[in-house]
TrEMBL record:
SUPFAM superfamilies cross-referenced by the UniProt entry: Glutathione synthetase ATP-binding domain-like
Organism: Collimonas fungivorans (strain Ter331)
Protein name in the entry: Uncharacterized protein
PANTHER family: BLR2978 PROTEIN (PTHR34595:SF2), BLR5612 PROTEIN (PTHR34595)
Domain Circularly permuted ATP-grasp type, first and last residues per copy: 82-462
Pfam families linked: Alpha-E (PF04168), CP_ATPgrasp_2 (PF14403)
Limits of the DUF403 domain: 522-836
Amino acid sequence: MYRRLLESYPAEADRYDEMLEAGGRLRPHWRTLIDQLEGLSPEILRRRAREVREAIAADGVTYNVYADPQGANRPWELDLLPQIISADEWQTLSAAVVQRARLLNAVLADLYGPQTLLSEGLLPPALVFGQHGYLWPCRGIEPPAGIHLHLYAIDLARSPDGHWWVMSDRTQGPSGAGYALQNRQIMSRALPETVRDMHVQSLLKFFHTLHDSLNALAPAGGETPLVVLLTPGPYNETYSEHAFLAHTLGFPLVEGADLMVRGDMVYLKTLSGLRRVHAILRRLDDDYCDPLELRSDSALGIPGLVQAARLGNVLIANSLGSGVLESGALHGFLPAICQRLLGQPLALPAVASWWCGEKPALDYTLANLEQLVIMPAFPSMRMQPVYGHSLNAQSRQRLVDSLLAQPHAYVAQEWVRLSQAPVLSRSGEYRLMSRAVSLRVFVVAAADGSYHVMPGGLTRVAPRQRKDVVSMQQGGASKDVWVLSPVRDEVGDAAAPATAPPEDGDGRQRTLDLIRSTVDISSHAGENLFWMGRYAERCDNLAHLLRATLQRSNDLQGEARETFYQLCEICRGLGIALPAVTATARPTVAALQQALIAAIADPAASVGIAGNLRHLHHCGYQVREHLSLDNWQALNRMPGLTTDSSGPSGVTPAAALHMLNNVIQACVGLAGHALDDMTRDEGWHFLMLGRHIERMTHLATLFGQFLRLPAERQNRTLPWLLESANSVVTYRVRYRRTPEWLPVLHLLVFDVSNPHGIAFQFHMLERYLSDIAEQLGTLSMDTPAHLSAVLREFELQDLSHDSLFVADAHARLVQLMRDAIAGAFSLSDELARHFFTPLNAPVSQGVS
């Protein structure tokens, strides 16, 4: 029945196969999937795989690998085929994982409390105190409800006999849960019928539990809890997941610089002042969290955070110091510890491990090196696993010397041949290939201290060239994990979990407080939204300017050539790098065309579209939790709009015009999202302020350069000016005549109803500044009102070319353009001083 897909699938006798039983028979829980895939043609299967890749690109799912050729935007890899686990097997496995979570939480409570494990000899003191993972300043800190591990991940491998073994524990800020949910959402779109027919369990309850637990345990003291997700920043390898989790959970995504400790309380620097933070879900390593008591050279942490936690004023998930358990050397001691702390045998043992700090273990390791994998004993050590069987004589001797010199720094593990699972060929062929896989399972603590396992997880797939090494850093891929249920789970995975906090005895008042509370926009997010607005408008302005200019570069004859040179000089005045046109130096039209194209497609251009699109994407990347999925997808596509495989030098004028059309359409879509797809909160007001400040700057600079032309040149360039200012249609509808000086002047400068006119920018800036002053207070910026008043003093007829007052009025208009430019820069600086660096901001009153 399954000949087509399975006929070339390579099964290996020395490994457990996730899909096939001995003898090549399909395991029962795989039959529905393979049966449905067999019903798809090769073309459909390839299309589904392509849809997965396109969904990853559209959603902006990345895993940043340092020094990777693809840079900071390396796409996440997801195979079309899931890993499937039967309901019966999962029930046994999840119970064992819960036990291990309870055990590790108890170990942390002991190590930072009475330390009976050390005094009774169940753990060697050197193994605990001899590593950087144990944080002495955190001893004695008791977290709310005694929960140290709020989120725990465990890496599992299946041995050839089918048993699961623990490879490693992730106890600091385990990554991957967000990727697991993103994988599920993408797979639900790629194979919706299969997900439904196989009754795959939903993942959403896991995230509901995490959200509700942190809100319930946060020491809020009657206030509505404010929980934040702390990230190292956009250059971290899993920042994409941080942004997705923040969006899913409804928590502000913050960096260390967004938080501060005042009076032993943690506060978030928001646009409206300081708002108390009650809980922190951290993705920052232990020792980087507080430069005052932990790592003094950390620029990522919050000074005073340990003291705030020590006094019980903030919940930190996971608790500081939990990284001590990520040492692989602990595995061999856990069976006895489990019996001591929980009174039961360890249900899920680790791969056989030997800490070389003990002489018998060292002797065994040296005698059996070919059958072992040598790993660092402590997470702070930067070392890749070394497979003893792969070493030549020279490498083996170097390893032996290292083991003898520092035995305590190494742990040996049994070499387990990982199980294999099928992956779809990436070459587009209709066939399955086998790859080694490992499984990461996630556990969350509920508010009552119980642990719950995500019914799924993240399967990591080894790359082709490293069969036994499963690592995302080394180019590995991922799989969605389908845990089957005999009853269809009615809750889908397409929506984010609800974010309403649980009600207590005073639930009605808490509900009213929640409804009345404002959105907490961090100063960092407000600044990025502000610059997102500026860069979006800058790209749009440049695209219209360059399109209007480049369109006039073909078939130039006589006056048209001179006009084109004048237009290029105006572009130079706006900062675009073009060859100068003088009476003695006349660059060729081709040279000017190439310079215009470079301003479109060259990311290195100081004033250009490609570079500004990247800046726009970078700002949007840092405020993903404030954007809808459609908005983010539109933004995520924009950096690729000016990319050409031949590079900027290979772009033709026709191709450049096509790029500009795409950029303009994308900018229109982005503006539509801003107006119709975003909540009118404080962040939105700063986004719009950024757009109008940028448009005012551009129009004033453009018009100021235009006014430098002689009157006869101005008349010839009026159509170009209208196109550059995106006002052609408005002019045609309103005046129904060819462009003339006074109507164009009125439309672009004096008309307060033209969205692309200077007066309109003055008016809108007045309005938004007034709204912000009403919402946030402490604001008195009268620059736009002053500019509007000056503009109203003009008499339009004085600017007619045949007016007696034209010279004076012309000079006043030129000065107004200069004042508008200076006013825009001053306004931007004032906003930054007031809201983006509030080091001495007041503490907000009322409910946080």
